[in-house]
Amino acid sequence: MKTYLVTGGAGFIGSNYIHYMFKKYGNNIKIINVDALTYAGNPENLKEVENKDNYEFIRADICDKEAISKIFENNDIDRVVHFAAESHVDRSIRNPEVFVQTNVLGTAVMLNCAKSAWELEDGSFKPDKKFLHVSTDEVYGSLEEDGEYFYETTPYAPHSPYSASKAGSDMLVKAYMDTYHFPANITNCSNNYGPYQFPEKLIPLIINNALQGKNLPVYGDGKNVRDWLYVEDHAKAIDMVQEKGKLFETYNVGGHNEKQNIEIINIIIETLQEMLPENDPRKKLVSKDLITYVEDRKGHDRRYAIAPDKIKAEIGWEPEIMFKEGIRLTIQWFFENEDWMKNVTSGEYQKYYTDMYSGK
Ligand code: NAD
Ligand code: DAU
């Protein structure tokens, strides 16, 4: 039975990954989820699995060397899947330092603890130990022209403090692979959407605001392009890279689903109008009149577009959920989990975990 150490598993992608892995492997794996529970971490995302015998939650900061090395000492970890990060670009523009702290120093701690636990006396590593670093397409910078794509060979050119800190963390992983032959992979994925996404990010923010008849803020001219992938397809890609990919390689993950932000907002409004029943009072609130152009994000990258050729050719990964279906699944999830959204927007979710993990 393999033991996974997942960092940041209480966040959006990490929690979807944990659900995906238990759905796929059942009781044949053990998952230890280490998460500091920042504002972005929400144990409610994992309510369905928290009592499983093969799941353990440890509240710890990845920058805390002692806490992380203790986890490696107490467990024979086979796989590390490293999601934990500060992830929101707007926050990085307001407060860059914590991004450097968590994303760069935290990754250094994870690498060093895994290396110490897995390294043999001759400098080689115990067999079948693997570290997967979850990164982003934003490290490649910004594309201008249609028809240009980010490949694994595209030079790094990050612009925001967030993407610069992720680029720094990727470089550390590359340095460990080059210097120590440390058994790792990096994935660089495009924008994710789906259940449990924190409503500071475009898609859940627009769904939540539209249902309440609140303004829908569009940065700049609304024509910036992002390449959207349903989160479960990302979870599947991570698992496939770790099990079928070549060690030491980077894989780009994306589904060729480029859309301008304004298109995304229009699709969400149209889909909400289709999906809401006639007698639902929110139906009258949802309207394109709510669209409000606001000041642009500083240093706003124009276009991201992933070329997923390598992961398709080498590993056979392809996205299964196309955007039309994915956005309906996401909206349906938000309809069925109104309390989740209420707890998040009211801050109640933070009380839940503070009580829970302070032993109350
Ligand atoms: P998120 O913000 O939803 O979750 C981050 C999680 O990390 C939270 O649970 C938080 O509590 C935890 N965390 C933060 N700082 C920590 C620390 N110091 N120690 C321990 N835990 C800490 O992020 P997400 O959107 O799920 O992104 C997960 C990873 O995937 C990140 O590395 C991000 O860069 C990458 N990524 C995200 C996207 C996207 O579209 N969201 C796309 C590509 C890659
Ligand atoms: O590309 C992958 C990245 O995608 C991840 O690495 C990041 O962790 C993740 O946050 C995401 O970054 P973006 O900045 O692309 O996502 P965000 O949802 O913040 O914004 C998407 C686009 O929508 C972007 O062009 C800015 C715009 N936007 C965003 C918000 C929150 C708006 O126009 N209005 C808004 O209110």
Can you walk through the features of this model?
The protein is of the alpha/beta class. It has one domain (2-353): Rossmann fold (3-Layer(aba) Sandwich). It has twelve helices and twelve strands. α6 (202-211) packs across α8 and α8 crosses α10. It is globular. The two termini are 33 Å apart. Bound molecules: nicotinamide-adenine-dinucleotide (NAD) and 2'deoxy-thymidine-5'-diphospho-alpha-D-glucose.
Distance between the termini: 33 Å
Radius of gyration: 20 Å
Which superfamily, in CATH terms, is the homologous superfamily? NAD(P)-binding Rossmann-like Domain
The rough form would be described as globular
Would you tell me which CATH topology applies? Rossmann fold
* Biggest beta-sheet profile: 7 strands, parallel
Structural class: alpha/beta
How helix-rich are the residues, as a percent range?
40-55%
- Listing every helix as H and every strand as E from the N terminus to the C terminus, the arrangement reads EHEEHEHHEHEEHEEHEEHEHHHH
Unreliable stretches:
none
How confident overall, as mean pLDDT? 96
Name the strands of the widest sheet in spatial order: 3-2-1-4-5-6-10
Total discrete domains: 1
Distinct compounds present: nicotinamide-adenine-dinucleotide, 2'deoxy-thymidine-5'-diphospho-alpha-D-glucose
Report the β-strand fraction as a percent range. 15-25%
For the record, the CATH architecture stands as 3-Layer(aba) Sandwich
* Tally of alpha and pi helices: 12
* CATH class bucket: Alpha Beta
**Count of beta strands:** 12
